[in-house]
Amino acid sequence: MPFKVAALYQFAALPDFRELREPLRALAAGLGIKGSVLLAHEGINGTVAGGDEGIDAFVRELQHGPLFAGRLDNLELKFSSATEMPFQRLKIRPKKEIVTLGDTTADPRRQVGTYVEPSDWNELIAAPDTLVIDTRNAFEVAMGTFEGAVDPGIKSFGQFKEFAAEKLDPAKHKRIAMFCTGGIRCEKASAYLLALGFGEVYHLKGGILRYLEGVPEQESRWRGECFVFDERVALGHGLRQRRPNDGSHE
């Protein structure tokens, strides 16, 4: 039986995030779930895998259970499958940030760019006055990206600040559209650019994974594959898993 994989995040106030670690670990372990979840004062971010019932129960607890007491009622979720368990173990880790930028002015809980649904993304990035930016690391971009997107050439997301300082100008770049794997990095990047004074800042809701899940391949402006941080390595349209060693899809 295939495993169900859930990629999830939400920016939310979790001042008690350190106290949440052990009960969340116990919940996931009891449901037979493996994967990685980050907890910080600003929210939750993770990818986990398990059986259908286990993943569904885990998600229900996050969204509606007493552990988070309704604070994750707007959880961004994407589901896919894996032919084998894509994680070796379960890790629940407290962090300073759920996605590391290292700048307190970037707070999506205060302000964030305009979300763009996958069905509207092609029209936005085709407009000649839109600067499209891939906010992922260079090795991820090398595996696949959208047509015409700028590669910042960064090794880690924290370097996005240097890229913005050197290459972006609010007076010149009037409309910016950003994307990333699941939505979390470009959501934080959009908050950062707004704090710097950029006017029109957009980002792909649900990220590349949501786009590949919902947009028909014949209409897609995506080229290549989407790197994922587990043993599946990369996914294609329909979130199909690449077969090891031969580059094809399941």
3D structure, described in words:
- The structure is a single chain.
- With 250 residues, the chain is of the alpha/beta class.
- Helix content is 28%, strand content 25%.
- The strands form four sheets. Strands 4-1-3-2-5 form a five-stranded mixed β-sheet. The chain has a four-stranded parallel β-sheet with strand order 6-10-9-7. Strands 8-11 form a two-stranded antiparallel ribbon.
- Strand 12 and strand 13 form a beta hairpin.
- It starts with a strand and ends in a 15-residue tail after the last strand.
- Mean pLDDT is 92; it is low at 243-250.
- Its EC number is 1.14.-.-.
N-to-C SSE series? EHEEHEEEHEHEHEHEHEEE
Q: Count up the helices.
A: 7
The average pLDDT value, as a whole number, equals: 92
Share in β-strands? 25-35%
Instruction: Count all strands and give the number.
Output: 13
Helix/strand structural class:
alpha/beta
Instruction: Give the % helix.
Output: 25-40%
Q: Identify the overall geometry.
A: globular
Radius of gyration: 18 Å
| Straight-line N-to-C gap | 14 Å
Specify the biggest β-sheet: 5 strands, mixed
Strand order of the largest sheet: 4-1-3-2-5
Low-confidence stretches: 243-250
Catalytic activity: uridine(34) in tRNA + AH2 + O2 = 5-hydroxyuridine(34) in tRNA + A + H2O
Domain Rhodanese: 126-220
Family: Belongs to the TrhO family.
InterPro entries: Rhodanese-like_dom, Rhodanese-like_dom_sf, TrhO, TRHO_N
Question: What's the short story on this structure?
Answer:
The chain has helices at residues 17-30, 52-64, 118-126, 138-143, 160-167, 184-195, 207-214; strands at 3-11, 34-40, 43-50, 76-82, 90-94, 114-116, 131-134, 144-146, 175-179, 200-204, 222-224, 226-227, 234-235. It is of the alpha/beta class and 250 residues long. The strands form 4 sheets. The protein has a 5-stranded mixed β-sheet with strand order 4-1-3-2-5.
